[in-house]
Amino acid sequence: MPNFQAWISAHQLRFEEVLRQMLPSADIAPQRLHAAMRYSVLDGGKRVRPLLAFAAGELAGADIACVNYAAAAVELIHAYSLVHDDMPCMDNDVLRRGKATCHVEYDEATALLVGDALQSLAFQMLSESRLGNDVAKQLQMVKLLAVASGSRGMAGGQAIDLDSVGKQISVPELEQMHIRKTGALIRASILLGAHCGSLDQAQLDKLDRYGKCIGLAFQVVDDVLDSEADTATLGKTAGKDKDNDKPTYVTLLGVAAAKEMAAGLHQEALQSLSEFGSKSRRLNELADFIVMRKF
Fold this sequence. Notes:
This protein has 295 residues and is mostly helical. It has one domain (4-292): Farnesyl Diphosphate Synthase (Orthogonal Bundle), CATH 1.10.600. Helices cover 71% and strands 1% of the residues. It has helices at 4-22, 31-41, 48-59, 64-85, 102-105, 108-127, 135-149, 154-163, 171-195, 201-228, 231-234, 240-243, 249-253, 255-272, 281-292; strands spanning 95-96, 99-100. Helix 2 (31-41) crosses helix 6 (108-127), helix 3 packs antiparallel against helix 4 (64-85) and helix 3 packs across helix 9 (171-195). The mean pLDDT is 93.
């Protein structure tokens, strides 16, 4: 079995080609929209959500060809959310993944359409017959991603985030915001990968617990990095949340307590996988990677 870094690199390289094939060619009309979609998705990001899907798929004994579609669906939703989040009506950012944001490189109207088109393409991926031959399970996966990305998930979390600017909120309120904004799609990544294989409901519940913990830890670490790392390291504007007067785990708890919280969530995530033994190796390693990352 390859070491963790080799596993990550191999999946990232292979999955980049998967995305290149699934995205419309920039030669196909409307060319500018398709070029902007490819610009926003390809050649950037750590692909954490697809990696979680592939790791959960391995644990569940899934066919990797099936997981490709689930992982692509999640990554396309994530990419659309970044394009829209960066727009002037949201966070008004100019840098993402080390390059100009979509609305800066193209224009605001194109960026809006890029997000819309990527979201539609994500659900097209989950409707593909090549995802599998269990229609009921496939429909369940569509619902899972829809809930995770909608008003009860990612979009709802972003709405709460925008409404919280300049306000004093509690740590539980901040957690509820990020369980939706960041955590919902991370949990969906894991469950979609697992649904490509075969697990019982109790096992899926364990994976969902892992996803909830690691999704929240991801955001806590993100807040710490936003306060400690520089723009060149992050590939996005450092200190943006503080400048925008947004509540974060760092502003509410302080850096030391935020790091302690991330460590506690990390341990809880690992504990939720204990019954899987060596099958959960990659999910364990991804938990370590998410909590200990520097960018």
